[in-house]
Specification:
Elements (H helix, E strand, L loop, with lengths): L21 H9 L9 E5 L5 E2 L4 E6 L2 E7 L4 E8 L3 E10 L8 E7 L11 E3 L3 E3 L4 E2 L5 E2 L3 E3 L4 E4 L13 E3 L2 E11 L2 E9 L7 H10 L9 E5 L5 E2 L6 E3 L15 E6 L8 E6 L5 E11 L6 E8 L11 E4 L1 E8 L9 E3 L5 E8 L3 H26 L11 H4 L3 H23 L4 H18 L8 H19 L3 E9 L12 H14 L18 E6 L3 H19 L2 E6 L5 H6 L6 E6 L2 H7 L28 E2 L2 E2 L2 E13 H7 L7 H13 L4 E2 L16 H9 L5 E2 L4 E2 L6 H13 L9 H7 L4 E5 L2 H8 L7 E4 L4 E4 L5 E4 L4 E8 L6 H11 L2 H15 L10 H6 L4 H11 L12 H17 L3 H22 L4
Parallel strand pairs: 29-30, 29-31, 35-38
Antiparallel strand pairs: 1-16, 2-5, 3-4, 4-16, 5-15, 6-13, 6-14, 6-16, 7-8, 7-15, 9-12, 10-11, 17-28, 18-21, 19-20, 20-28, 21-27, 22-25, 22-26, 22-28, 23-24, 23-27, 31-42, 32-33, 34-38, 34-39, 34-42, 36-37, 40-41
């Protein structure tokens, strides 16, 4: 019972004043803390007073009558009469109709106002489960079933999607008429009703025990029900699914076979994610509940769960119930260190038990850390104004004089972070790498307070330590837990053993080891022997991606097409020598944009337009995605990924400085003096040239400016560079002026400088969104992105317009010309780039590696089905329409390389830009001429 402990602490809400949840607590203090008793106000969904045109009343839907459907761009408003003023919980009774498969998101307005920032984009869960029972391949290995949406009528209280605020939101309503409006941020939903309910705390277990005694409930005698974790009813995430554990004690198991025998783990770490099981007992009475669990991923932490029986938390002790870290499975009874909790169940009745991930005691701590980060970041930016990012180490900047809030802020945050460190140790019972992060910045703050004249010498370390606090927020937010099974039992029965005996375990491990010599791993997942055709596919990405793809192939492709796939994870450099030796694969995945055409010149890749049904799949992609794969009227790869530029900016800093958001390149230039007044920077990407870069890409900013001014990369049937044509030299000069005249940094870590605020605006590929969303939680809600700055022109009607062409970075999947299984390989390529497969791969990636791994698919419909909010998706699609591809031609590897050489000569040697680009175009043209002669292209 030593694990059955929970830690809570009193929190001073003033310590949250700079966190993302500060305005919620300010909202609570704005009104008299009145919680009306015994109130239950029903608001029927169809009884709305105002709505957008796409809201529809359904007279009969899934067993309910007169319900209302709202789409992902809808808004709907109700008027409700509240008899007693005060705070209420809001309960939503809903049906998650099928959409893109992402969480439903809604923003609530009370009397025409969003009450607090966390009331924006509130997540409402969908429900997922296995498409079928667990089946086995022809070798007896379990095959993981596909996860599909299983929509049901459900109820949820409106609460914090992130989990920083515990429990349900409290909303204030005045006495009399009130307006409630829900606006859609993502996904459709059917609403039966809203309920305004009195705020009631769960009972203590001691009160529940007294009720048991008053009702004369008796302990059950000798009854035990074991429910395997993998036999769940549903989850709220498509990436929570049965897993395989090879431990001898895990149930069920077999030494030489794959068994799906646990659930959760790393995939079940996000606050709010829930797993639900059903069970029933044979005898009426009081039972204990025990779980065989493992929390081995979040070291030095407890992992918390809210535990529900039939949709309700039975008593307060099951709110944020803690599971401590341990590397091994253990059987843990729900209870305290003094007693196991008892639950009353009736014979034959089906019960539902649910465990919901929560931040528990860490929620307040994370919010406090977030507040400290924001305070310290403000001081860091104030210091930058005085010192720049590279201060003179020998100068005394008298920072304490010119920034009077600096030392008091350091003192305050030193005390706050010290208290947080002590609280974390009290919660987990020991120090860990989490407290080590705090130790580092506490030492630095103590040094700053002792020797303020030396602060500027450690400015870079200070910035890094603030970023480390952001990393701490991420670590504390992960709440993983793995479940083997749970047991509903009376206190008198013999429980399953947690561990098998030493000799049985040894025998299991030996048997498992020897089975590896006889297992054909390339055939795992094969469900029939009807086809002997096997294609070889090479993949050059990470191991996690390869494992996900292997699973998708086993689940979907092979059963549907009868084609086996020998998937191999290889180095990208191995493809060329293998192809030259005649030992290459049938298909190469994840190849760079230059590879297919380079192989096509040498007749090593296959022209996909030769397949009769090629034109039926081109609509999956933007036309720009095919441009790098085109050669001599053929297409030599299908697009896999396509990323393009977006402009990112810190909304909080631009509001603080009252700066306009630039819409054109002229606007960008106009705000640079304002930014530089505060020693702030604007970011434009420059590809790195360290090491032997064979195929340096064309600078994306030059490409953007060039295309926005009618530039063409190659002219005269792709035989010459177009950089010297038209306004090409002028565009090159204008691009270099950002660095020569406006002192833009040539190299910078945009992510870190964006987090700190040193670089509050910049242009980069849109997938940096994923990194910022996950690895910069301290600036959540304080940044956004927009299409890139454009170039103004006058259309044929005399109206001013803005064009926003930009370039993209692509990868593709290509077929090798030597393949003798082209028909089977083509079926695989079509399957892999299909909407369904790309969506599933993207979701699996995000589930295992987090939002930082959001997949930048080139499939347009799959892209729309990934978890983008509507406003974000609209901006991305607007920019995607403007994207243009950069052609690959013989000798084009010289284009990016010599464009960079010309750029660096101008900024390093102050050379004349127009003359320099003219000279380097001659070198590019000569290389193109030589390559065209080599390949007999005339």
């Amino acid at each position: 019972m030593k694990y059955n402990t929970s830690s809570t602490s009193d929190v001073d809400y003033s310590e949250l004043e700079n966190s993302s949840v500060a305005d919620y607590y300010a909202y609570l203090q704005k009104y008299d803390m009145v919680n009306p008793k015994d109130q239950s106000i029903l608001v029927r969904g169809d009884n709305f007073t105002n709505s957008s045109d796409d809201v529809v009343i359904l007279s009969n839907f899934e067993g309910k009558s007169n319900v209302v459907r709202t789409e992902e761009t809808s808004n709907i408003e109700w008027t409700v009469d509240v008899p007693v003023a005060g705070f209420y919980n809001i309960k939503l009774n809903y049906f998650p109709v099928e959409g893109k498969g992402t969480n439903i998101e809604r923003t609530i307005y009370i009397n025409d106002e969003i009450p607090f920032s966390s009331a924006n984009n509130m997540a409402i869960h969908r429900f997922w489960g296995s498409e079928s029972t667990i089946k086995q391949d022809i070798y007896g290995n379990d095959i993981r079933p596909s996860q599909i949406e299983k929509p049901i009528w459900s109820s949820t209280f409106l609460k914090d999607s992130i989990g920083y605020i515990p429990g349900n939101f409290a909303f204030y309503f005045k006495s009399g008429q009130n307006k409630i409006e829900l606006t859609s941020d993502a996904e459709p939903i059917v609403i039966e009703s809203l309920e305004l309910l009195s705020i009631n705390e769960a009972k203590d277990y001691s009160e529940v025990k007294k009720e048991y005694e008053a009702n004369s409930y008796k302990k059950a005698e000798g009854n035990i029900e074991i429910v395997e974790g993998e036999n769940l009813k549903y989850t709220t995430s498509p990436t929570i699914y049965p897993l395989n554990d090879r431990g001898a004690s895990t149930s069920p198991n077999k030494s030489n076979k794959i068994r799906l025998n646990t659930i959760g783990g790393q995939n079940w770490r996000i606050s709010g994610d829930k797993i639900v099981w059903n069970f029933k007992v044979e005898e009426t009475g009081l039972y204990n509940i025990s779980l065989r669990v493992r929390q081995n991923l979040a070291s030095g932490m407890t992992s918390s769960r809210n535990i529900y029986i039939n949709g309700e938390i039975p008593f307060k002790e099951l709110e944020n119930y803690s599971f401590k870290h341990n590397n091994s499975f253990r059987i843990q009874s729900l209870g305290t260190d003094k007693e196991a909790f008892e639950f009353y169940f009736e014979a034959g009745k089906v019960y539902e038990i649910a465990l919901e991930s929560s931040l528990g005691s860490y929620g307040f701590k994370i919010a406090q850390i977030e507040s400290s980060i924001n305070e310290l970041s403000k001081i860091y930016r104030e210091i930058l104004k005085r010192t720049t990012s590279q201060p003179d180490p020998n100068k005394d900047y008298q920072l304490e004089k010119y920034i009077p809030t600096m030392l008091p802020t350091f003192e305050k945050e030193y005390e706050n972070l010290t208290n947080i460190r002590e609280d974390l140790i009290n919660i987990s019972g020991s120090k860990s790498e989490k407290t080590g992060i705090l130790d580092t910045i506490l030492v630095q703050l103590a040094d700053f307070l002792k020797r303020p004249s030396r602060i500027h010498r450690k400015l870079s370390d200070f910035n890094n330590n603030i970023s480390s606090l952001g990393t701490l927020v991420i670590l504390l937010s992960d709440q993983p837990l793995e479940i083997d099974y749970f047991v509903v039992h009376s206190g008198k029965v013999k429980m399953p053993k947690n561990n098998v005996g030493v000799f049985k375990n040894l025998g299991f491990q030996i048997s498992s080891f020897f089975s590896t010599f006889f297992t054909d791993y390339s055939s795992i997942g094969k469900t029939n022997n009807d086809s002997s055709e096997t294609i070889e596919v090479w993949l050059t990405v990470g191991k996690d991606q390869a494992n996900i793809l292997r699973k998708l192939i086993d689940e979907k492709f092979t059963p549907e097409y009868g084609i086996q796939v020998d998937l191999k994870l290889v180095s990208g450099a191995s493809l060329l020598p293998a192809t030259l030796a005649g030992k290459g694969p049938d298909i190469a995945m994840g190849v760079d944009s230059n590879t297919p055409v380079n192989y096509a010149m040498r007749k090593a890749s296959y022209d996909l337009t030769k397949f009769d049904d090629f034109n039926t799949i081109t609509d999956r992609f933007m036309s720009s995605a095919f441009v790098p794969f085109e050669f001599n009227e053929g297409i030599y790869a299908l697009p896999e990924q396509q990323t393009f530029l977006m402009m990112f900016y810190r909304t909080d800093i631009f509001e603080e400085l009252d700066l306009p958001i630039p819409n054109t390149w002229d606007d960008v230039i106009s705000i640079i003096p304002d930014l530089q007044t505060y020693n702030l920077e604007y970011y434009l990407p420059v590809p790195r040239t360290q090491g032997a870069v064979v195929n340096l890409p064309v600078n994306p900013i030059f490409g953007t400016l060039f295309y926005q001014n009618d530039g063409e990369f190659y002219i005269n049937n792709n035989s010459e560079s177009g950089f010297n044509e038209g306004v090409g030299p002028e565009i090159f000069e204008r691009w270099t002026e950002f660095y020569t005249d406006y002192s833009f940094p040539v190299e910078a870590n945009f992510t870190n400088r964006f987090r700190s605020g040193q670089m509050p605006m910049g242009i980069t590929y849109y997938n940096i969104y994923n990194t910022l969303s996950v690895f910069a939680p301290e600036i959540r809600g304080k940044w956004g992105f927009l299409p890139v700055p454009g170039t103004e022109y006058t259309d044929e009607f005399g109206n001013k317009q803005i064009r926003r062409e930009t370039v993209s970075s692509n990868t593709g999947v290509m077929m090798l010309n030597d393949s003798d299984k082209k028909a089977a390989a083509w079926e695989y390529m079509k399957w892999w780039t299909s909407e369904e497969t790309q969506v599933r791969f993207g979701r699996e990636m995000e589930g295992i590696l987090g939002a930082a791994a959001r997949y930048p698919t080139a499939n347009v419909k799959a892209f729309e089905s990934l978890p983008w909010r509507q406003d974000e998706l609209a901006k991305l699609k607007e920019q995607w329409e403007w994207v243009r591809g950069i052609p690959e031609v013989p000798g084009s590897y010289m284009t990016g390389r010599h464009l960079d050489n010309a750029f660096r000569k101008v900024i390093n040697e102050k050379a004349n830009a127009r003359e320099v680009i003219y000279d380097y175009v001659q070198i590019i043209n000569e290389e193109i001429r030589l390559k065209r002669e080599e390949f007999n292209l005339g």
